[in-house]
Amino acid sequence: MKIILIVDVKKLGKKGEVLEVKDGQARNYLIPNNLAIEANKKNLNDLNSRNESIQKNVLQSTEAARKIAGQLEKERLLFEVKENSGKLFGSITTLLIHERLAKLGYEIDKRNIDLKKPINALGEFKVRIKLYSEVFANISIQVKPI
After folding, report:
1. Domains in the chain and their CATH numbers?
2. Predicted TM-score (pTM) of this structure
3. Whole-angstrom Cα distance, residue 146 to residue 137?
4. pLDDT by residue (tens digit) across 63-79?
5. What is the dihedral of CA 43, 47, 49, 54, to 10 degrees?
6. 68-86 per-residue burial string, b: 16 or more CB within 10 A, e: under 16
7. Considering only CA atoms, which of 28, 70, 15, 119 is closest in space to residue 6?
8. What is the tens place of the pLDDT at every residue in 100-126?
């Protein structure tokens, strides 16, 4: 029997997949437990239209992320900090970068800021930010003494 999975089922498949399973498994387990529906013409058409709308939304989101990436590439964050012979008192972390970007109007999750270790030296640094799946921006961070 052909079915369409409604949710991810361990050892069977992921949500939205069309599978061929034994009749007993479909009728006695998958369909009664709302894990799958029968793959008839109406349900297949619904699945195709849902997939098309998801792809359209992903495309729009990717384009919006690329636009924001272009704006972010032009940004230059300046941090003025106390220092002693080249070493900072404290460090520049993802939280500080997140807060500075929020002040500029960018809503970026601090977990998407790719900073291997906190910045604790003077100079200019490039930091990579993930905006969307496979859309990244590099911003320039400059650390100067007060």
Report:
1. 2-62 (3.40.5.10), 65-145 (3.10.430.100)
2. 0.68
3. 28
4. 999 999 999 999 899 99
5. 160
6. bbeebeeeebebebebeee
7. 15
8. 999 999 999 999 999 989 888 888 999
